[in-house]
Amino acid sequence: MDQSVILQEQVREAYAQSRALHIQGSGSKHFYGRSVRHGEPLRMRAHQGVVDYEPSELFITLRAGTTLQNLQEQLAEAGQMLPFEPPFFGTEATIGGTLACGFSGPRRPYAGSARDYVLGVQLLNGQGEILRFGGQVMKNVAGYDVSRLLVGSLGTLGVLLEVTLKVLPRPEQELTLVQELPMAAAIDQMNQWAAQPLPVSASAWYDNYLYLRLSGATKAVEAAGRKIGGEILTGADAFWTDLREHRHEFFQGDAPLWRLAVAPASPPLPLPEATLIEWGGGQRWLRGHQDAEALQALAAKHGGHATLFRGGDGSGEVFHPLSPHLLALQQRLKKAFDPRGILNPGRLYAAL
Amino acid sequence: MAGDGGSGQDAFLDALRAALPDDALLIHEEDLHPYECDGLSVLKALPLAVALPHNREQVQAVLKVCEQFGIGVVPRGAGTGLSGGARPNAGAIVLSLARLKQMLAVDTRNRTAQVQPGMRNLAISEAVRPLGLYYAPDPSSQIACTIGGNVAENSGGVHCLKYGLTVHNVLALEVLDASGELLHIGSQAPDSPGYDLLALMMGSEGLLGVVTECTLRLLPIPENTLVILAAFPSVGAAADAVSAIIAAGIIPAGLEMMDQLAIAAAEDFVHAGYPRDAAAILLCELDGSEAELQVRLHAVENLLEQHGAGSIRIARDAETRLLLWKGRKAAFPAVGRLAPDYYCMDGTIPRKRLAEVLEQIAAWSAEYGLQVANVFHAGDGNLHPLILYDANIESQLQAAEAFGQGILELCVAVGGSITGEHGVGVEKLDSMCAQFTPAELAQLHRIKAAFDPEGRLNPGKAVPSLHRCAELGAMHVHHGQLPFPELERF
């Protein structure tokens, strides 16, 4: 159902009264970002439904409150998929929340991220104006790329109403291979494979085992599998789904979860606890109460950044600090979209 | 020196001279002429001066002097742009990044290259080829265009359906803002904290910052590649074949269509062996392992035949492949030989609307009395109609422009965009009024102001003023009463 008029009215009122709103989908990603919630909820769930889907044009346009479940079922019927393989983190997860968080799954380093697949958006800015940017076509350089800017902005720049995503055919065949390898050798191996024209679609390392998924035409997957070697993992779909959804044993328990994004070929990092590695080495997970500054310094040294992803003290900053120039620029950008600071204030950074 | 002179201007030029070595500043009128336009040569203006810095520090110095004197800056790469994005503004300087053209580093383990903005697109792939790697986006102008210009336009190329645009292949940028402050945007990691400024910089046409360094993602060179050339009795049949290929779950590495006039022009020019009697041809590139190619080739051949392909040629060896692509890549200059001038359009449309859009273009072509050759990135819906005209006949230039504007408005009407990859520049400012509402344009202006509050970077480009669109709207309403009789045919 199209709720955009109702949502627009709520944002306009909040703007007129300079009242904060916190944007709410299903609440499945409530844990992500800073824990502050100001003002009343702006409920997005009823604003759902597929608006336009053309499998042969490789795009789908849908309202932000549409569940990932519903979206993926429709795509699967046409033999297609979301290439960035997003985690749900809850059965009712919406596409709006997924894009606001900018979450991508195991296929990310090989197929691209959530933002890579966004072609266009309709949004409500902080003044309650309904605006459209991008479109349903793959190439479009008219105006700045607002569509992709919104991905990962945690609702602080605008309320995502509608989005158009590029979709791709599902691979004909998938195969997961396992090899026993220590961390350093596994990181090397993942990056060597990525430098060759192999149909790799996911990689992970945990507890001395390296997992590699191949996807594509059956013959190509078989040929690559023979070249790479290792044992075939049974129940591979469940393995990758559990990893994506953080149901793997590494993610159990309440200890804080840290995410380090680094240059993929970075060597094993001197971390105090066990690590789970994904994305060819580019995404590394760590548990426990850690010294945030030390982790940030370590991630920065390897070309990246550290996030307190889940748990711990969410009232402070949870994302990597920005340089003063970049923070000032992002504050001006926030103001350009949301002059009275009413949309999810403080969810991303205290100053945004 | 161009412009009116004056002591303020003299003081500005003195300050620039003090900030740069002698060989890095052009101020005499005869030296400025080579910079009076970009690839859209009908739009010309002389800048106040041209700065040709050798390094980032000098770029920074230029920006600081311009800030001090409130002077506008038009950044420029190779000047191959087709929308007037690098056309100088009177009273502003041109900042050429052409001398920052070094490859600074290649990280083979992480498969990235760190390059300066003036490096040519093709030179990047050539430099890393011995490592088995390449840089994927390959716009037709890749032998000349620079990576900085690619960032400014979010360039694609014939392989972007499978391998993405510039936005998908750049990991990080070093950018100077309008005040010359250094910003590091993006990173070596898969993502960065805060807003995705990297996405925002792509295609921003030099309005948000000046890129001084790019970190690029490199990909492994595919194991095998082949190109299929298929001839069709109608454009509609070719378009249906494209949809069928994609519906079958095949994403070709490249998928290009040309119509009869473009085929004939290309054939005369490069003798690629295109079938002259075809109404349309498709060029379909497949890549992958030998095993995969066998399966895919068989499937694609069947689909092409089912959709009425008259003849099918398969090029496996590099020489024949390159020859088939050469015809396509040389389509613009080839068409350029058919008439004294041509006007290259760059709309995108949903592919399923192709046949009706081409029919309308053909009808307008007859109405305006101007021939059109069509080149189409069929996989991604990017249509390049090339309108042939003679600029020496004044009414033809105006007719070509009105015709072009009509095509772009048609693209918007069928759900597409006024520019797929050439950018708005100066050329499509009016068309932007058709694509965006005043509230959307105001939002774009506020984004610009967040980066460049004084509006000194590439002033007046890419996003039209609300005033301009309001005037244009008024003009459309009173269409029949315009003082330009040529426009009545529109």
UniProtKB/TrEMBL annotation, chain B:
Highest taxon, organism lineage: Bacteria
GO molecular function: FAD binding; oxidoreductase activity
Required cofactor names: FAD
A matching Pfam family: FAD-oxidase_C
Flavoprotein found in the keyword field: yes
FAD-binding PCMH-type domain location: 43-221
Keyword Zinc: no
Gene3D superfamilies recorded: 3.30.465.10, 3.30.70.2740, Vanillyl-alcohol Oxidase, Chain A, domain 4
Protein name stated in the entry: FAD-binding oxidoreductase
Organism listed in the record: Acidithiobacillus marinus
Lineage: Bacteria, Pseudomonadati, Pseudomonadota, Acidithiobacillia, Acidithiobacillales
